[in-house]
Amino acid sequence: MHRDASPVRLAHHRVAPERRVPDLAEDARAGLLAPPRSMPPKYFYDERGSRLFEAICDTPEYYPTRAEAALLTDVSERVIADIRPAHVVELGSGNSHKTRHLFAACERLGIHPRYWPFEVSPQIMLDSAAALIADYDWLHVEAMSGDYTAGLGNLPLPGDGGRRLILFLGGTIGNFEPAQADAFLAEIVSLMAPGDALLLGLDRVKDVATLEAAYDDAAGYTAAFNKNLINVINRELGGDMPVAGYRHRAVFDRTLSRIEMRLVAEYAHRVRLEALGADFEIAAGEEILTEISRKFSQEAITGLLGRAGLRQTAHYPYGDDQYSLVLAVRD
Ligand code: SAH
Ligand code: AVI
Question: Among 157, 164, 213, 274, which has the minimal tally of Cβ within 10 Å of its Cβ?
Fold first, then answer.
């Protein structure tokens, strides 16, 4: 029998939830049947949603991806040389495109960490992992699929004493409510041993026109991404929500310092959700809150890290504080 002599360089772990989190049916029951209506953003990322997110990242209006990629181009070598990680863990890794800057720096420096991406959308992670191991012959990927809101305690992380660099990029921390963000950072910190580091991407407060355009691109990818939630609900819950019966809306709330993405009903209609055995009436102009994306001031960043018990060791701002990468350690 032929045996492949090369060690397996891509493993896939399905991470068991540490605690029970509501499923789509429960979130829809809690969030859709009566106003104020809302849904958590994690349901955007079915295969089509993940591809639409990639398209958003390439639009001229959506600056965070370009800003973070430019920062990583500049600072990856400094970060890797400083931390010298044995393991790189990435939460919500998506297509790992920007992470490649860190691996390129690893290659230049001869530092060869193992990569642990964690994703709720496994296909995009596995495709990206296969491309990464083809490009970096030293790289081993331990792909972890699961929901990070179900806890991080069951991640099959190494206990070999090597330093870990944890990545939470893209400004995704901004998709959490403030209390959730604090709790999630506390969970991340609980994974960290002294000397481990967190590289956190945060989008910054800026003029409203730039912010709102980033969430309503002219080519319509963000609108399609938002409306894709209707497809997910219809497919998974036997729903009959009319995709053409909703329009995309993105507004910046200055008080809460956050973009709010909403689906707005164009006309009054009744929706049947077969899997719930439930119907609801939605009036013309009524809205469903589908995502918040918080934008951070310097004080907000300092507060977030301080409450988590993290010490900032470097702050890399993009341009005129348009976007920030923060490197922080647990002492
Ligand atoms: N880090 C990438 C992707 C950001 S998009 C970047 O900066 O471009 C957010 C990513 O987090 C998506 O790939 C999505 O599938 C993933 N995600 C969203 N909610 C999640 C959850 N609850 N658990 C795990 N991954 C999640
Ligand atoms: C993943 N997350 C940081 C994106 C954001 O900017 O809040 C999701 C997104 N929603 C619309 N466009 C991008």
Answer: 274
Taking the CA of 144 as reference, the closest ligand is: 1
90: closest CA among 152, 41, 45? 152
Looking at the whole model, is its pTM more than 0.90?
Answer: yes
- For the CA of 90, the closest atom of ligand 1 is 1
Could you tell me which residues are beta bridge partners of residue 198?
166, 328
Q: Answer whether 175 contacts ligand 2 (Cβ < 6 A).
A: yes
Residues with CB under 6 A from ligand 1: 42, 45, 50, 53, 65, 92-94, 98, 119-121, 147-149, 169-170, 172
Note the pLDDT tens digit of each residue in 100-137. Answer: 999 999 999 999 999 999 999 999 999 999 999 999 99
Query: Do the beta carbons of residue 191 and residue 155 sit within 8 Å?
Result: yes
- Distance (Å, whole) CA 315 – CA 116: 24
